[in-house]
Design goal:
The structure holds two protein chains of two kinds.
Chain A lengths: L2 H5 L8 E2 L2 E2 L1 E2 L10 H14 L9 H21 L7 E4 L2 H11 L9 E5 L8 H10 L2 E5 L12 H4 L4 E7 L11 H10 L3 E5 L11 H4 L3 E5 L10 E5 L1 H6 L10 E4 L4 E3 L13 H15 L3 H20 L4 E4 L8 E6 L4 H10 L2 E2 L1 E3 L4 H7 L4 E5 L6 H18 L2
Parallel strand pairs in A: 3-15, 5-6, 5-7, 7-8, 8-9
Antiparallel strand pairs in A: 1-2, 4-10, 9-10, 11-12, 13-14, 14-17, 16-17
Chain B lengths: L3 H12 L5 H14 L13 E3 L4 E9 L2 E8 L2 H14 L4 H5 L5 H4 L14 H15 L2
Antiparallel strand pairs in B: 1-2, 2-3
Helix pairs in contact in B: 1-3, 2-3
Chain lengths: 404, 138
């Protein structure tokens, strides 16, 4: 497998920033897009644009068929048993909010939700809102200093009142790959449902929701080489059938009178209003792009990038890596003694290197380590060892400037 | 005494010798390091302007008809830019500060640090400096 051939398909990777060739290490925030995805969206707006569902004219039928075939592509890729289990949303956050709202409607006062200590704000705040509204209890599964969840403690947290366990597959700020199989098994043992936040996962792991047996799986398109503003909620059919709709409006109804409305069938029940049609079709193209790649070789390459970056960064005096779990994806969060992440990030940018600094929308994780934030380099399979060398050389130049 | 505009011109002039980004930042970092602007025990919550990326402390008072500012930040680049802002606005009349355009920031290529999306506390600080001055205009 040739990484340069893959890189060649991503136009943004070939631009310059501040007069230097771009090194893009902010893939945890969003990935770059391959030409095939960009072309697919352009083609939709150039040749195929029409509103979908219910249109009798040819253009509308073509657009509907393309949009629905994207759904099918995604269903196949993630191993869902039916396309009605694939709900188009705005992204991971929207997917989680949908579950918090509609699954939340099935919860009673005194019921419990379990999340973990390493969740993104998107998988904390909706549950806090739900628990406040319905007088439910939010419990937290703790983690250790390495950034690994203490799965043994899950047994104490789970009770017959636990209705849902919502945990991230991969930590966006620490890179930890959680043992979600074990979490799902334990939760199911007490009859709780499980939502997996997969925002960082589908682009790094071979995710099969059927094998996982999770009840919900949420992810965003833009982090896996697709467009922004579109994402997926996978849900088990029987559960989705039981849940009331999220938003009301066009497309989600079967029949409306001024007195009463009956709702459309799945998946449309959860897709009110004209959806992000170009986004859905673009996301389908991103999955087609992914399915042509040798993912197991790319996962190996990403692990090599992680190991190499970790090894090189650890040589830097005063540098500390946060998140040292045994199973990690290609994310390295670090701080350098005597420097502020904002300063390091600003100067790396001047040398053409894009990293993220700050709390990464995981303030509780930063509170756990008692730090204001980190510098995070997150790699995709199109990154290279040479780019890591450039980051290390840049850090070697920057650190003496910032230290007294 | 120099006016705000003259002080701004002087800064633009100083920065004109740098054509490399890193040299420019080296200078800003030195400015930041040279100015221990507020003692740690003075960094109280009421003076704190919270940014997402870096924190800024600001205190202001009027003496002899002129504004006196002290400020600080936990990030050194932010601190260097604060040093420049203070150099320009310190010892000026409140009414002059309130209408200052501070175009030197853009002229020396640092406007990105004053973008609201940057969230480093600097935008709020400039606003606060002007608000403090405005309160004194009577």
């Amino acid at each position: 497998m040739n990484i340069n051939e893959i890189r060649a398909q991503f136009p943004t990777l070939h631009r310059e920033v501040n007069g230097k060739p771009l090194v893009y290490f902010d893939n945890g925030a969003t990935s770059q897009k391959p030409q095939s995805v960009i072309d697919r969206i352009t083609q939709y707006y150039t040749d195929e644009n029409a509103n979908i569902h219910r249109g009798v004219h040819t253009l509308s039928q073509e657009a509907t068929s393309n949009y629905e075939s994207a759904r099918k592509t995604i269903q196949d890729y993630i191993g869902a048993s039916s396309e009605v289990e694939i709900i188009f949303t705005k992204g991971t956050t929207d997917s989680i909010n949908l579950v918090a709202h509609s699954f939340g409607e099935l919860m009673q006062a005194g019921d419990e939700v379990v999340i973990s200590a390493m969740e993104h704000h998107s998988n904390i705040v909706p549950w806090q809102m739900l628990c406040e509204k319905r007088d439910c209890k939010l419990k937290i599964l703790p983690m250790n200093e390495q950034g690994e969840l203490l799965l043994d403690e899950l047994d104490q947290l789970l009770t017959d009142r636990t209705k849902l366990v919502a945990v991230t597959h991969i930590s966006n700020s620490l890179g930890t790959i959680n043992d979600v199989d074990e979490i799902i098994r334990k939760a199911h043992n007490v009859g709780a449902k499980v939502l997996i936040d997969g925002a960082q996962s589908v682009q790094h792991l071979d995710v099969d929701v059927g094998k996982l047996d999770c009840d919900f799986y949420a992810f965003s398109g833009h982090k896996l080489f697709g467009p922004t503003g579109v994402g997926i909620l996978y849900g088990k059919r029987e559960l989705l059938e039981q849940m009331p709709p999220y938003q009301g409006g066009g497309d989600m109804i079967k029949e409306v009178t001024l007195e009463k409305t009956t709702y459309n069938t799945l998946p449309h029940k959860f897709e009110a209003g004209t959806p992000n049609i170009a986004g859905g079709i673009g996301l389908g193209a991103a999955f087609e792009f992914l399915s042509k790649l040798d993912m197991s070789a790319l996962v190996e390459h990403e692990q090599d990038l992680l190991d190499y970056a970790t090894e090189q960064l650890e040589k830097i005096d005063g540098l500390k890596i946060y998140g040292t779990a045994k199973t990690k994806t290609s994310v390295v969060s670090f701080l350098i003694e005597g420097t502020h992440p904002y300063d390091v990030g600003t100067l790396l940018d001047k040398l053409g290197i894009a990293v993220r600094t700050g709390h990464h929308c995981t303030q509780p994780v930063m509170q756990f380590y008692n730090i204001p934030g980190t510098i995070r380099a997150s790699f995709a399979f199109y990154n290279t060892r040479e780019e890591i060398d450039r980051m290390i050389a840049a850090l070697d130049r920057i650190i003496p400037m910032l230290k007294d | 005494m120099d006016t705000i505009t003259e002080k701004e011109e002087a800064i633009i002039d100083e920065f004109s010798i740098y054509d490399d980004w890193m040299d420019k930042y080296e200078y800003i970092i030195e400015l930041g390091k040279d100015l221990p602007l507020i003692d740690d025990d003075q960094k109280t919550e009421d003076k704190l302007i919270k940014g997402c990326q870096s924190r800024v402390w600001l205190s202001a008072e009027k003496r002899d008809g002129k504004m006196k500012y002290t400020a600080d930040s936990d990030a050194i680049i932010t601190k260097g830019i604060i040093a420049l802002l203070i150099r320009v606005l310190n010892n000026e009349k409140p009414e002059d500060i309130a209408k200052a355009e501070l175009r030197f920031i853009k002229a020396i290529g640092l406007q990105e640090h004053l973008s609201p999306t940057r969230s480093n506390g600097l935008v709020s600080m400039v606003k606060q400096m002007k608000m403090n001055a405005l309160k004194q205009v009577s």
